[in-house]
Amino acid sequence: MTIYFAFLFHIYQPPVQIPSVINQIVHESYKPIFEALQDHPEARITLNINGTLTEQLHDFGYDDLIGLMTTLASRDQIEFTGSAKFHPLLPLIPEPEIRRQIQLNNETNEHFFGKLYAPRGFFPPEMAISEEVVKSVKKAGFEWMIASGIANTLPLFPTRTISQAHNGLKLVFRDDYISIDCAFDKINNVETFVNRLKYTNTSEDTYVVLALDGETFGHHVKHAITDFLIPLLDTLPHRNDINLCTVSEIVDKFPKGSKQAPRDSSWSTMPYDIAHDVPFPLWFDPGNAIHIEQHRFFMYALTLIHLSAKYRESMDPERKELFDNARNLLDRGIHSCQQWWASKRPWYSTDMILRGLNEVLMASVNAKRSIPDNAPDIKDAMELIMEDMLIAQNRIILSL
């Protein structure tokens, strides 16, 4: 019996992140992780890097790190996944915006990684899924998508077959318990880890998919690379009971299983959230007044952008530039971190909330300014929308 396990590392920083934080995480986490892989040529992982982080690494002078990831991908040690470029919570945005974020992510990572960026699988930000997300990911041409274990609705948790959505998209479920214990330093040595992988207690080949923030290693848990990851990679070539794979290798090895409609959820959703019908508690909790106003604010801004987009072809060059700036600012501004920092579960940051609001507000103002003078009715409608936006913004600010 062999246990095939995969690490899916998710690395991302919000587009409003300050350079000193990027620098710290690069040196504490990203470089040591990829250097550890370089030192262990037989090791391989599945990696999600959102396009906004790829761009930030380039902008802040870390092309050597991008080059190292490219080299590892060329040696089949890194398998890339698709995602949404600026890390919005996909179930909370309209389907055209889901498509746009996926396409932007593909274009950015293809630019930096070339043909080596050819993802078969998809990582939804925060592993937040819904029926609309499943449809959009399938339409975008991906073969499989990862979801949190809590999203599984089958009677048994899949460990020997690959479940499918009803549209044929293959579903790979994270083992939440082991992943969370790794993330919170409850599993910090090789033997404890291996024993946890064997929890199914079966003589048949099984698989376990572990997915967590790459920043866990070296940044959040300072000793996790030297005391756990490197010793694990050292011992793997000498064991035949566990086998480190990419997620796609697991998808290829194990047969298709039952179809299901996965549960709306994220990798931070707990059973009591499901019981209270709150599938995305850290980003849209009906009991969180800031979340409600943030969502209202975003939806107003999206309405303004889509109204102004209808007039882009008739805009003069100056107004087209205003619209394009608005579109870019909104792409950036709907990242999920500002809602996460408003969740108070337990984290809270007024700075991150306000940074996100500022980008969305600037997008809205530029969208309004881009409308041609020969469309006064649309300008009037946009002014009414912005009045409501400012009410929502005022409520957020006064609640901070």
What does this structure look like?
- This protein has 400 residues and is an alpha/beta fold.
- It has two domains: 270 residues, 7-stranded beta/alpha barrel, CATH 3.20.110.20; 111 residues, no CATH class.
- Strands 1, 2, 3, 4, 5, 6, 7, 8, 9 and 10 form a ten-stranded mixed sheet that branches.
- Strand 6 and strand 7 form a beta hairpin.
- It starts with a strand and ends with a helix.
- The mean pLDDT is 96.
Count of DSSP helices? 15
- Describe the main β-sheet briefly: 10 strands, mixed
Mean pLDDT: 96
Number of strands: 10
User: Would you tell me which CATH topology of the largest domain applies?
Assistant: 7-stranded beta/alpha barrel
Integer tally of domains:
2
Order of helices and strands: EHEHHEHEHEEEHHEHEHEHHHHHH
Helix amount, in percent? 40-55%
- Weakly predicted, low-confidence segments: none
Strand content range: 5-15%
Core attributes:
single chain, 400 residues, alpha/beta, 10-stranded mixed beta sheet, 2 domains, 7-stranded beta/alpha barrel
Topology:
Elements: E1 3-11, H1 19-39, E2 45-49, H2 51-59, H3 63-74, E3 78-82, H4 95-113, E4 121-122, H5 131-139, E5 144-147, E6 162-165, E7 170-173, H6 176-183, H7 190-197, E8 206-213, H8 224-235, E9 242-245, H9 247-253, E10 256-260, H10 271-275, H11 289-309, H12 317-333, H13 337-340, H14 350-369, H15 376-399
Parallel strand pairs: 1-2, 1-8, 1-9, 2-3, 3-4, 4-5, 5-7, 6-10
Antiparallel strand pairs: 6-7
